[in-house]
Specification:
This protein has one helix and eight strands, in the order H-E-E-E-E-E-E-E-E. It is mostly beta strands.
């Protein structure tokens, strides 16, 4: 069984969004900052005037690693797999998997779009490369 996230009061809106097919980020009503991971205050101005907003779901690969070894038995069938830092169009960065492309096609600057994968007890945001010209 793959490990799944354990939502808490702070992160629950993110995971509820994923279950609905929405990628959500937090936004500050005082300074306009947007961020992930979730926080109870704005990391820029420390305001607690924060809300969850729906992100567009598009982004760019900032950095990545290709895993050829399973550090958890549940990931063995996925080898090799790509873990990347994706910068969303709204600015926040998210660590996730890149799917739908061989690892040698993944590169820094690759445009990607979110999709959601239901697994045992959760729905995870994953990213797929955007087709050239699309």
């Amino acid at each position: 069984v793959r490990p799944v996230p354990t939502p808490d009061a702070v992160t629950a809106p993110f995971w509820e969004g994923c279950a609905r097919g929405e990628l959500r980020v937090q936004a500050c009503g005082a300074c306009g900052a947007r961020w992930l991971p979730a926080s109870v205050v704005c990391p820029r101005c420390w305001s607690d005037a924060i809300a969850w907003i729906r992100a567009a779901g598009s982004g760019t690969v900032v950095t990545f690693a290709v895993y050829h070894r399973a550090y958890h038995e549940a990931f063995r069938p996925l080898l090799p797999y790509v873990v990347a830092v994706v910068e969303l169009a709204e600015g926040p960065r998210l660590v996730s998997n890149i799917v739908g492309a061989p690892p040698d096609r993944v590169r820094i600057g690759l445009p990607v779009r979110v999709e959601f994968e239901p697994i045992e007890g959760a729905v995870l945001p994953l990213f797929r490369p955007v087709e050239e010209g699309g």
